[in-house]
Amino acid sequence: MAEELFDIAREINSLCQYKNAITAPKIVTIGTQSSGKSSLINKLIGFDILPTKTGIATRCPIVFSVTPNESEKPVVKLSNGHQKELIYEGFIENINVIEEINKQTNKNVSDMNVTPIPIHIELKYKNAPTLSFIDLPGLIAIAKTDVGQSKTIIEDIKRIAKTYIQQKSTIVLTVVESKTDLETDIGLSFIKDLEDVDKKEFITVGVLTKPDLLKNGDVINNILDGKISSNISLDNGYFVVNNIDDSIGFYNSLKINNNNRCGSAQLGNYLTTLLTKMIKTDLINIKTQIGELHLQSVKELEELGAEELTDNMKIGLVSKILNDLQVRITESIESSGIEPNTGLKIKNVFNNYLKDLNSLDIFSSVGDKFYTDLLNSFSGYHMTNSIDINKILYKCINENALNPIHTLSLECMNEIIDVIEGMLEHFVKNAKYTHHENILKSLKKYYSNYIIDRKTEVDLEIKRFIKMESCFINTIDEKFVKLIHDFTPVGYVPINTIDSMMSRNLAINNILPESIHDKYIAMIKVICKCYYDTIKKNMFNNVTKSIMLNIIRNIEQNMNYMSVYEFITKDNLTLFQEDISIIERRKELRQLIEQLSNINAKIKKINTKVQINTKVF
């Protein structure tokens, strides 16, 4: 049972290189450099398989497992890296494992330094214990830069350790050299600092090595019996292991009383029992996470699509991408609450355009001299019978008067273009097919060029609207018609009635001039302003409708057909060349899905043994 559970846990933990991977309970060893950590593991597994030289012996995470088999000769399997590239598989007598570990480590990092790239070792031999460990580089206090160590090596080692220790359900085997003042140990201090971090999810087991350094067994007895400060105590207490002489006689010679916590055999049995229990406890949760990760991975792989696409498949994919974008564009424009809320943004631009138009008041700022000269241009106006209102308006509503409206109209159009460009950028970035980056970029470029063409059409129409307003004075606006009728019932201003008539109507508009000349000027201002308001209404209606027709509706209704046509006729099939990262991700997903399926099958196989009923994905 333990072997099967450990096998599942190892496979799950081997998924750590994948994005969104899950983890299973595991044992991680931590300690200071030369604390006897690697020697302890060699003792536990029964082989001198890990480097134990002076200085940094372990320079990368070494993930290894030990399981029993019926072979007369021990078998070892070495793999390098997260992808577990096979180095050697065969009888252990045919390879120097320590040399091979150093050789593979040196491929990933220079001598004297450390790397997070792991080496995997699987050892099988007759009557072997069932164990699984991750041995980490030993902690140090000073970087020896003069002999080639990186000045960041201290933090590099801590960073590697944290990566493994702070994962959920980790058993941290803390190896401490025997001494009276454990509080001075760098490794123990490191673990205690991590325990202070919120949501601690690892548990600790301590191991005292080199007990022969203490001539008095009382200190060790107190540590093993938990008669120590809570600040240096660990979750599962301490064991003591002498790596050179691990016999009961040795521990008895030191007068160590707690035989259950003496020796590598007791420690190995305890760790196996603890790890087995944790894996059993987590199995249901692990099963659920595997199912979720499997579904996510399958979905992502489906979105990435097949590796090799025929030309017809490429054209079909373009149509699918365009159709998806088209639906999103239409929804964003026509529906509320759908990001990026394009319809609301268009409405706000139009509302601001209307507000800016209504705030234009060019006639109130024009000096009276302009109007006096205008009246004088009607030869002898004070001696004639009438003044033609159309001629007055034609003189006043000129190109200069319409320029502010033209400017605001162009600003409105440009703001709408910005909204549409922003919408397209949003959907291209958030499209389902981001792995076809070249296609999306090309589509974005095509959309932008298409919009520029539509913008040119609207620009020309706005110019035409301005020319229309300046070339012919005509309106049926009720407010203006009534104003003119009140001022000039017969279409002109009779001199003999103007005084009483204008006084009454100017008063209505809160204008109270004194002389007849001032009344003429005031009357012209009121009429020009009123007619100018009708132009603003016309421009607002025409410009917004032109924008909606030529830009908004055109994009909604015509872009899908036009874009597909462009892509097919221009034969942009080379755009399907994928980035190498996409190719690698597809390969990674297939490997992950296969591994998850294998793990799931193994869990299903032992479900009856651990009496767990879980649904198989």
UniProtKB/TrEMBL annotation:
GO MF annotation terms: GTP binding; GTPase activity; microtubule binding
Occurrences of domain Dynamin-type G (ranges): 21-287
UniProt cross-references to Pfam families, sorted A to Z: Dynamin_M, Dynamin_N, GED
InterPro entries linked to this entry: Dynamin, Dynamin_GTPase, Dynamin_N, Dynamin_stalk, G_DYNAMIN_dom, GED, GED_dom, P-loop_NTPase
Keyword Heme in record: no
Domain (GED) ranges: 521-611
Any one cellular-component term (Gene Ontology): microtubule
SMART domains given in the database record: DYNc
Protein name: Dynamin-type G domain-containing protein
Organism listed in the record: viral metagenome
